[in-house]
Amino acid sequence: MTVHHLGLKPSVLNQYIAELRGIHIQKDAMRFRRNIERIGEILGYELSKTLNYTAKTITTPLGTKEMHVPDSNLVICTILRAGLPLHQGILNYFDTAESAFISAYREHTTSEEEFEIVTKYLASPSIDKKVLILADPMLATGKTLEATLAVLQERGVPEQIHIVSVIGSEQGIAHIKNIFPENTHLWIAAVDDELNNKSYIVPGLGDAGDLAFGKKL
Q1: Alpha carbons 161 and 12: distance in angstroms, whole number
Q2: Whole-prediction pTM value?
Q3: What is the mean pLDDT of residues 120-141?
Q4: DSSP string for 66-117
Q5: DSSP characters over 115-161
Q6: Residue 108: pLDDT band with limits 50, 70, 90
Q7: What does the alpha-carbon distance between residue 155 and residue 98 come to, in Å, rounded to a whole number?
Q8: DSSP secondary-structure letter at 11?
Q9: Beta strands 131-135 and 138-139, pairing class
């Protein structure tokens, strides 16, 4: 797997990450969602540089111009519900991409520390021989992405996989490296060193789904 850690270089991306993390600014749910969306746009732009392109002659009012335009068939698959703003940001840059959605959540078994990932809903087109973009804002343990990949196998074998995340842990990245195909790309804005005993990213930003859409029962 190739990891593209964009936060290592100073850019406006760091401002959006700082606002997502800040306990006072993140109370503004609309701003929180918009910052995740903007990060999705930035990561989508960087991702676009690796896609296939075809030369096409464009006719203007004054003549013609040959340009290279993307010709990859894209499917953006987002993990509900926290991934919705990230999905929108990526979709803003890939107008013709198809969309897929999957529900995945932690089901605790014997304690708050022990859990399994449960998936109960999938709406997806065929991903066979297409470029699959998996949008998951918080890459904590990597188990959610592992479960998502397993469910998506019934929809075909993608030509290539790109994972787009806002913040991830070193442990989660190490885990998915062992799960996903070697030619997978991870596009991530920030990487934190550790997980706490509940498998939340530290320092992270909290619960992205709750901050974006309100607390759940």
Answers
A1: 26
A2: 0.92
A3: 95
A4: EEEEE---EEEEEEETTTHHHHHHHHHH-TT-EEEEEEEEEEESSSSS-EEE
A5: EEEEEEEEE----TTSEEEEE-SEESSSHHHHHHHHHHGGG---SEE
A6: low
A7: 13
A8: S
A9: unpaired
Q: Cβ distance 157 to 129 under 8 Å?
A: yes
65: which residues sit within 8 A by CB, 6+ positions away? Answer: 57, 58
Q: How many Å apart are CA 183 and CA 54, to the nearest integer?
A: 22
CATH 2.30.42.10 fits 2-50+75-206, yes or no: no
Residue type, 121: Y
- Looking at the DSSP bridge assignments, the partners of residue 101 are 78, 123
DSSP state of 35: H
* pLDDT, tens digit, 9 for 90 and up, residues 19-73: 999 999 999 999 999 999 999 999 999 999 999 999 999 999 999 999 999 999 9
What number of CA atoms fall less than 13 Å from residue 23's CA on the CB side? 1
